[in-house]
Design a protein that fits this description.
With 472 residues, the protein is mainly α. It has 2 domains: 173 residues, no CATH class; 288 residues, no CATH class. α8 runs antiparallel to α16. The longest helix is centred in the N-terminal third of the chain and has 36 residues. It starts with 5 loop residues before the first helix and ends in a 13-residue tail after the last helix. The mean pLDDT is 88.
């Protein structure tokens, strides 16, 4: 089941809200959350509920073992055991075939490939339970004493299958003590409606438009057509994933949970480092806190630490070399920025200072260019297709600069493209500050109703409604 489906919007969610608010206490409400979350997860793949419950169980027990043992080696043993089990499960179901195929090519062996259906959300809930155990070990949180509470944390359907990655310490208090208000419920509806509109109205539309260029005949593709196609995909993946995160945050408010922001207008960034402080924030902060800093961070072996983090970031997104290359590509950009930035300030004689507006413009152009190149590696799992597409973008494949097809497609999607670009910036918050005399809150119910009705109309009979991050 996905949030952007008629079944979820008109059956599952209303029924869930009814039973949740009809429950007399938080104890009953917790059980309602657990039951509906497991039903949500089992809707498409009921067999993987056992894996989810097993993962929650082993980390609940390991958290208790760490807290109840004062002996240092026993605590470390429990921590290592938890990490090893979690990574083994993730590696077996997500990466077994990938590594077996790589070994076969490297060694010329014939290791049989294991093909399992990827359990939905395994990358997200595995990282959540691992962060819990590590935080218990480091003393940042107390171990949860009630298994039902921990199972609820792991299985919460709001963020279970595609994030954001919610750390236990961020919602530990709300697991046992949640307060609701009409204003918070209204905020939840607004945030969910915005996310739904992002997904159904914008992401699906630009996604369908991008396939004309990305899945079409490369021999008929122009240089600017290749750039336009990958730009459409860049907008699709932003609205798809940030829309899902908005819906998850909105659902959290509806049920009394506060989830941290996962996107902060990444396309207004002026460097790759800044982009990743704004894109998929929960994943970036996870690798920073649990991998980069423990390895030494900026203090020692910085470049090696960055290489490891970005290799893992790419691999986390999928068991395919294109994702590894995509991760290392961004890792290289971040490394170069960290090396070059200090040189600018310590250069003798000092480099001439450019006007601020010019520096910002150059930074934006650089960022958008390198991100769009990166999305090519992300989109094409076949690297030969990726490099062929990049050759067209670079004008090295003999393709014309512009084609009649591009002009037609651009004219057909100009308004959609322009709206998508504008709304990917802080234009709406700026508008609210600029026109403070207008009460934007008074218009919010009307905006919510429009987004819900428009999204519903588009979902009726829709055949194109993927969530890109479900496969991770």
């Amino acid at each position: 089941m996905v949030f952007s489906s008629l079944t979820f919007l008109f059956y599952f969610l209303p029924l869930h809200l009814f039973f949740y608010y009809a429950s007399p206490s938080n104890v009953w409400r917790n059980w309602v959350l657990i039951v509906f979350s497991l039903v949500f997860y089992a809707w498409g793949e009921p067999v993987w509920i056992s894996l989810l419950i097993f993962s929650a169980s082993i980390d609940f027990l390991h958290g208790r073992l760490i807290e109840n043992n004062r002996t240092n080696w026993k605590r470390k043993a429990a921590l290592c055991s938890s990490i090893a089990l979690n990574l083994s499960l993730l590696g077996f179901f997500k990466y077994a075939s990938f590594f077996a195929e790589a070994l076969n090519r490297l060694l010329g062996t014939d290791i049989p490939l294991l093909h399992f259906g990827l359990p939905i959300g395994i990358s997200f809930y595995t990282f959540q339970t691992m962060s819990y155990v590590i935080d218990v070990y480091s003393g940042k949180v107390k171990a949860q004493q009630r298994y039902a509470h921990f199972l609820m944390y792991v299985s919460l359907f709001h963020q279970l299958v595609a994030g954001p990655i919610v750390r236990y310490r961020d919602i530990a208090r709300e697991i046992e003590h949640r307060t609701m208000s009409l204003s918070r419920f209204s905020l939840g509806i607004s945030r969910f409606s915005i996310g739904l509109g992002k997904k159904v109205i914008i992401a699906n539309a630009v996604g369908e438009a991008s396939e004309h260029f990305l899945l079409g005949n490369f021999s008929a593709l122009s240089v600017l057509g290749a750039w336009f196609g990958i730009a459409l995909f860049g907008l699709q993946i932003y609205y798809d994933f940030s829309g899902y995160s908005d819906m998850a945050i909105g659902l959290g408010h509806l049920f009394g949970f506060t989830y941290l922001e996962n996107f902060r207008y990444p396309y207004i960034a002026r460097s790759a480092s800044d982009f990743w402080r704004r894109w998929h924030i929960s994943l970036g902060s996870f690798f920073r806190d649990y991998v980069y800093i423990p390895l030494g961070g900026n203090r020692k072996r910085m470049l090696l630490n960055l290489f490891i983090v970005w290799f893992l970031t790419g691999l986390w997104h999928g068991a395919s070399w294109n994702f590894v290359l995509w991760g290392l590509y961004f890792g290289l950009l971040v490394m170069l920025e960290k090396i070059i930035q200090p040189l600018r300030y310590h250069h003798r004689p000092p480099l001439p200072r450019l006007p601020e507006w010019f520096s910002k413009m150059i930074g934006h152009i650089y960022l958008i260019t390198v991100v769009l190149i990166g999305w090519v590696f992300f989109y094409f799992t076949d690297l030969s297709h990726a490099f062929s597409y990049l050759a067209i973008m670079a004008g090295l494949a003999g393709a014309p600069l512009v084609s009649t097809d591009l002009v037609i497609q651009f004219n057909n999607h100009l308004i959609l493209f322009a709206v998508a670009i504008i709304l990917s910036t802080p234009f709406y918050p700026w508008l609210q500050k600029r026109w403070r005399h207008l009460s934007f809150e008074a218009f919010q119910p009307v905006i919510n109703a429009f987004l819900l009705l428009a999204s519903t109309a588009l979902l009726v009979g829709a055949s194109y409604n993927p969530f890109l991050y479900f496969r991770f």
